């Protein structure tokens, strides 16, 4: 029985691109610098400036509103010359080293030759505030009188406006409140919320106006002058001067980063370039983690997705479960607290459904975009149950799962009642209003679901990977039920999982393609397309072993495996486009799940090939930072990957990708009851001869171990242990 009033979906409707990210400029070309803390993030150019202009993503953003849309530094009216621009390895501070160009007077006479004045800009974020220190040094042999000017502006644009969505109306901008060393910019939105940006300067500038601060300084030879700037995105008034506030906040910010990352296991290897990449991955991951009342929660990515997303956080938590289970606990508790309890078509919400996205900006509050609290993802709900089972297996934290069990039961009811829209045993999606997302799997582009002839699939659509997730969710729920002393419930869930496994194989397997269909359309016709989605079936364990070998072969063929990773869609398919978002690109997180799936069925060498491809891609990328995605062009000798113009970096599930591929290659598993760490037929990718894991936790014990190449095999050695923990190795 169909319980829904579905809105017919026309994938050719031009309105469907209304929430897409505009591609007017390339993030890869600009190579911006990003900082984040909590609900605040900043996107700066390499000089440390915020540059305004059409299509510019720059700014200081807080809770989905741009609180600073322009900030640039001038020395005697001229733009400084960039020397270097670096983020600390832990992402705590952005440091930009600048120098003066040749400075002339009005007649063209040279007043100061270049490279005499050094300006070091140090910026960081902490508790809704961007802190900056300008350290000006004179390396000349004469005193220099300089005019430093900071020009600033706040447009209070909603993040979706910055992404390219047009608005017909805006709220009210109030006159700037200019005080002694302080300027407050204020905007009253149409949502009746007042948003403020307060800039403070120490020392107070000689001239301070609504859009600029001017400092006249004199710097003796070999001496320095320091200016502190503070940009606050709320109306709280600090009690300390900016100079004192900068120093105390710096100490707090760095201490918090150390504490959050210190609970996790760490990785060191024989490859120093990979060590740089893995340090950046861990730093990016913990920069994106936001502390919520329910625990740590990884926001999806900057600049466009610095928010709580269900799917992204669930997958990120799964990828990092072996090294930091606290993330999984925080994600599970947050999503349980925000689980839907009633039907709301505008939010695509139904009882038991797990969150897709939360936004706090003006457009979300007004309903101009549907994402205030939005539930339009078909996979978050089974992924929530999967993570709950995996967390219990990893930690034996029965108390947390007891509290979550009502949420798991509600999620199971959603799968059976609302998810299965036509009673055929599969979970389908279809948006409830015209404003919702048309495609609600992880490939949510409007053109990502199609048939072998290139025609668009009409909904409701049953995705390949979602059925696999449902199978795994039933098995995970059975494990939890068993652990909570409910054997009859566990047996029923296991039986339902087996039924799904049989139905899935019958309906989705395409013998001539050697893989599972991408999806079933509304008429139950399979979308006979070779795609990466089938790799998720391996990840979830729904594929019979004889199918797994064929799927692995298909995924690793040249049409699918670009050399950098598995493409979302094979190059043989009619809608293949290596520059598209979902129809031929390479996504690191997609490959991480495929790698885990390949390893699950014993295809460790294939998983290691994926690991090798993504590592060598990172070699060509600034900061060794894997982006959200890159283009699917074939790998060429001596050339790096082709970048996607508006890919987010950092992105949580991309940052977690190397961590999960380490687990895949080692076959790393845990038995907390037996206090055992297991390695299942471990292999090392070609770029590693040794890999050391430290601070691996299991049931209160700690373990350091090394895996080293020994000819064609690998050997494992325990370096140290705390507590009664042991290692088992399956050869």
TrEMBL record:
One matching Pfam family: GDE_N_bis
Residue stretches making up the Putative glycogen debranching enzyme N-terminal domain: 35-229
InterPro entries per the UniProt record, alphabetical: 6-hairpin_glycosidase_sf, 6hp_glycosidase-like_sf, GDE_N_bis, MGH1-like_GH
Domain Mannosylglycerate hydrolase MGH1-like glycoside hydrolase residue range list: 312-615
GO BP, one annotated term: carbohydrate metabolic process
Protein name (record): Amylo-alpha-1,6-glucosidase
Organism of origin: Microvirga mediterraneensis
């Amino acid at each position: 029985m169909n319980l829904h009033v579905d809105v017919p979906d026309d994938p050719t409707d031009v309105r469907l691109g209304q929430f897409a990210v505009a591609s007017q400029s390339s993030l890869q070309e600009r190579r911006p610098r990003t900082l984040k803390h909590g609900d605040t993030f900043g996107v700066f150019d390499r000089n440390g400036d915020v540059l305004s202009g059409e299509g510019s993503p720059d700014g200081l953003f807080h809770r989905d509103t741009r609180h600073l849309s322009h900030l640039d530094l001038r020395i005697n009216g001229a733009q400084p010359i960039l020397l270097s621009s670096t983020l600390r390895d832990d992402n705590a501070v952005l440091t930009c080293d600048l120098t003066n160009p040749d400075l002339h007077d009005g007649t063209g006479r040279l007043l100061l030759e270049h490279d005499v004045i050094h300006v070091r800009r140090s910026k960081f974020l902490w508790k809704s505030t961007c802190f900056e220190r300008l350290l000006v040094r004179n390396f000349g042999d004469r005193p220099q009188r300089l005019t430093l000017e900071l020009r600033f502006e706040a447009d209070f644009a909603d993040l979706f406006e910055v992404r390219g969505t047009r608005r017909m109306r805006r709220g009210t901008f109030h006159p700037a409140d200019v005080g002694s060393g302080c300027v407050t910019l204020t905007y009253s939105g149409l949502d009746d919320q007042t948003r403020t940006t307060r800039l403070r300067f120490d020392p107070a500038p000689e001239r301070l106006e609504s859009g600029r601060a001017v400092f006249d300084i004199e710097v003796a030879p070999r001496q320095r002058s320091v200016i502190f700037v503070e940009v606050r995105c709320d109306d709280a008034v600090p009690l300390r001067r900016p100079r004192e506030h900068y120093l105390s906040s710096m100490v707090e910010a760095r201490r918090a980063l150390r504490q959050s990352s210190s609970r996790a296991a760490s990785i060191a290897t024989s490859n120093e370039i990979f060590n740089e990449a893995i340090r950046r991955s861990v730093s990016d991951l913990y920069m994106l983690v936001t502390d919520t009342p329910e625990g740590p929660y990884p926001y999806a990515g900057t600049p466009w997705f610095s928010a709580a997303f269900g799917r992204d956080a669930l997958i990120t938590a799964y990828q990092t479960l072996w090294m930091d289970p606290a993330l999984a606990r925080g994600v599970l508790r947050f999503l349980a607290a925000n689980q839907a309890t009633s039907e709301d078509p505008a939010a695509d919400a139904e009882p038991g459904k797990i969150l897709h996205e939360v936004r706090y900006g003006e457009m979300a509050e007004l309903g101009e975009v549907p994402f205030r609290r939005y539930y339009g993802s078909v996979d978050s709900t089974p992924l929530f149950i999967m993570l709950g089972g995996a967390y219990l297996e990893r930690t034996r934290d029965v108390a947390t799962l007891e509290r979550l069990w009502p949420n798991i039961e509600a999620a199971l009811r959603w799968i059976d009642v609302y998810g299965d829209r036509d009673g055929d045993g599969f979970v389908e999606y279809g948006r409830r209003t015209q404003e919702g997302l048309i495609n609600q799997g992880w490939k949510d582009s409007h053109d990502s679901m199609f048939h072998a002839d290139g025609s668009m699939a009409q909904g409701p659509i049953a995705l390949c990977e979602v059925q696999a997730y449902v199978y795994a969710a039933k098995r995970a729920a059975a494990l939890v039920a068993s652990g909570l002393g409910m054997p009859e419930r566990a047996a029923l869930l296991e039986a339902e999982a087996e039924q799904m496994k049989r139905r899935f194989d019958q309906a989705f397997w395409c013998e001539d393609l050697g893989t599972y269909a991408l999806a079933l359309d509304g008429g139950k016709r399979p979308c006979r397309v070779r795609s990466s989605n089938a790799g998720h079936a391996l990840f979830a364990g729904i594929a019979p072993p004889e199918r797994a070998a064929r799927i692995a072969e298909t995924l690793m063929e040249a049409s699918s495996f670009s050399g950098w990773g598995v493409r979302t869609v094979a190059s043989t398919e009619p809608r293949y486009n290596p520059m598209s978002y979902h129809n031929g690109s390479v996504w690191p997180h997609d490959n991480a799940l495929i790698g885990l799936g390949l390893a699950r069925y014993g295809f460790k060498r294939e998983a290691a090939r994926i690991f090798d491809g993504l590592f060598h891609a990172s070699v060509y990328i600034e900061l060794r930072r894997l982006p959200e995605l890159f283009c699917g062009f074939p790998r060429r000798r001596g050339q790096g990957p082709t970048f996607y113009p508006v890919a987010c970096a950092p992105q949580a599930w991309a940052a977690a990708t190397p961590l999960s591929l380490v687990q895949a290659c080692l076959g790393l598993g845990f038995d907390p009851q037996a206090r055992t760490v297991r390695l299942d037929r471990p292999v090392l990718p070609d770029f590693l001869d040794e890999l050391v894991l430290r601070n691996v936790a299991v049931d209160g014990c700690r373990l350091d171990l090394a895996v080293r190449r020994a000819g064609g095999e690998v050997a494992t050695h325990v370096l140290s242990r705390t507590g009664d923990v042991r290692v088992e190795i399956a050869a």
